[in-house]
Every structure is written in C-alpha cells, then in structure tokens.
Amino acid sequence: MTTSRLTSISVAAAMATAGLFAATQASAETVKIAIAGPMSGAVAQYGDMVKAGALTAIEQINAAGGAGGNKLEAVLMDDACEPKQAVAVANKIVSQNIRYVIGHVCSGSTIPASDIYENEGIVMVTPSATAPQLTENKKRKFIFRTIGRDDQQGPAAAQYIIGKVKPKKVAILHDKQSYGQGIASSVRKDLEAAKIPVAVFEGINAGDSDYSAVITKLKSQGVDFVYFGGYHPEMGLLLRQAREQGVKATFMGPEGVGNKDVTAIAGPASEGMLVTLPADFSADPANAALVKAFADKKRDANGAFQMPSYAAVQIIGDAIAGAKSTDPTKVAAYMHKNAFQTPIGKVEYDEKGDLKAFKFVVYTWHKDATKTAAN
C-alpha cells in the first residue's frame, strides 16, 4: 500500500472520528434539575441541607463527563415549606420545561406539588418528605423518594420507646400538619398496641410562641415521656418551656427536629432529646472522598438530608445514562426497574416509588448540638 493511500485512509478516519464526535456533541444537552424546598422561612435549614447535597452531586457528575454525556444544571426554587407556594413553584417548573425535580422538602408542600409533576410527566425525587400520603393508594410513575416513610420511622421510634425507655405514661403532640400528625399517629398506634398508655394526644399550632397550656396538661397528667411530631422551632420551644415549668419528661421527635437550631432555641434543655434520623452516612468510610468534596465547597455533609439529596441526583443521572435518554418517561421506567449504588447504600424502588428498605437510627441529642447513637 502506497504512502498516499495510507494518508487518504488516515484523513478519512480522522474525518469520521470528528464527525462522530460532532454528532455526539450535538446529541448531548443540558438537563435542568430544579431543587425545590424552603430556601427561606422557619425551616430553611432543611432546604440548605438538600441544596448542599444536590449541588455537590451535580458538580461531581458534570466533572465526570455528565449524565450519559449530558450536563446537569441546577435551578433553585423556594417554596418556604408552604403548600400554596409549592404549587406555584411546581407550575413555574412546568412552564420552564424543567423535567426533573429534587424535592420538595416538607411533606405538606411535596404532596400537592407532586400531583402536578405526575400529571405533567416530571420526575420528582424527594430526599426528605416522609408522609405516606405522598405515594400511598396512588398510581404514580414519576414520584420517588430517597428517604423512608413515616410508617417506617414511626415504628423505629416506637420500638425504641417500648424496648428501651419503657415509660409509664406518654403524651404525643403534633403540629397538625401532614408530616407531624402522620408520624405522631404512627407512634401512637404502636404504643397502644404494646399497652403503653397514651394519656395525651393533641395538636399544637406551629408558629406559636407560648405552649404553656399544653405543658400544664403534661404536668397534670404526670407524663414521663413526650413524643412530638413536627419541626425544630416548635420542639425547641416545647423543650425550653417544659423545663422552665419543671417538666422532667424525656422528649423525642422525628428527623424534623434534629438539627442544631433546636439547640439554639432550647439551649441546655435540648440535652437528652431523642431523635430518629437517617444513619449518619457522612461517617461511612466509603463516603470519605465525597465528604471531602462537600468540605471543599464549604458545605457540611453531616445532616439528615445531604446524602439522600446527593443520592437523588445521582440516581437521576445514572438513570439518564442507563436509559440512554433524557426523556422522563424512559428515565422513570429505568428507575423503577433497576438498583442503584449510592452514598446511602443500595437503592431499589417498589411500584409506588418508595424505597424497598430504609433504616432510621435513634440518637441522643446534646446541648452542644452534637448527637450520639442512643443506647
């Protein structure tokens, strides 16, 4: 074969390679992912956790070549944990033709927004909304979680109360919202089945500043254990005001009370609070490099929702690559049928979009805003 012939073949090969590269580049796209949750308001701390996890995942995926070659782009959406605002945010996401959502954060906001996403064929993965109503008794193709449900978290709390605390008389309070009342009801069901008396089951108004009336009731009933379903602003006040009025009962709550701001509100009264949280995935040696990636961006990886949020983005990215498509219908179908290895462990979905398995851990909270695994 002559040199000129070799040259011609080389040029042709180079042109073919360039053409293939150009075609690949042309087929790739920027996939927008909305991060929807409370970026403002009383529980903005949880929105910050979700944002930290999602942004870190997007950065890591893009640095590794994207999701199936597609660049991911974050779009922040603030619903302030308000259902009406969440609906407005969902409609805004639809109008902007965004096809993927991480969030929402609060169950009360996630439930109405999810109806819009399901109807519009938008994939939503919430790393924090635990209310069963989100997925129960509904035929959903596009709605997923990377956290367990209240009917998984509630029994974990109740099992600890029954087996370890063994209280004589219990009060169960809640904030009258989907999340708080739902998990409070789950705990009550299991305690009553175990013949542990629930002397008080009562709702309080979120946002109030004085809970002396209900605390007086706790005193008069002589309860030695209080479970509260809700968020940290109310738990912090309940703890502080209860101690000021001489109530020595142990308090416990779900992951919504487990952040440093409960200590900022309650002060020393937060010492000894029990809380159910996802496992501390930031302490897993397998996630050491990822924790460093958070730290490099001055983000805290240690919290209830950072790693579930990271996992939510990763699963979407892996599903886009696996489905070889950015079409939400194909991506959602892939998510239902496949397992994913993530920082929160192996993730598999049932037909409702719920995790097949998720473990909640009971921690003891301390007055310096740290926590240790409860004995």
From TrEMBL:
InterPro entries attached to this UniProt entry: Leu-bd, Leu_Ile_Val-bd, Peripla_BP_I
Residue spans crossing the bilayer: none
Pfam families in alphabetical order: Peripla_BP_6
CDD domains, per the entry: PBP1_ABC_LIVBP-like
Cleavable signal peptide: 1-28
Alphabetic keyword roster: Amino-acid transport, Signal, Transport
Domain Leucine-binding protein: 30-353
Coiled coil: none
PANTHER family in UniProt: LEU/ILE/VAL-BINDING ABC TRANSPORTER SUBUNIT, LEUCINE-SPECIFIC-BINDING PROTEIN
Family of this protein: Belongs to the leucine-binding protein family.
Stored NCBIfam families: PRK15404.1
Protein name as it appears in the record: Leucine-, isoleucine-, valine-, threonine-, and alanine-binding protein
Originating organism: Cupriavidus pampae
Lineage: Bacteria, Pseudomonadati, Pseudomonadota, Betaproteobacteria, Burkholderiales
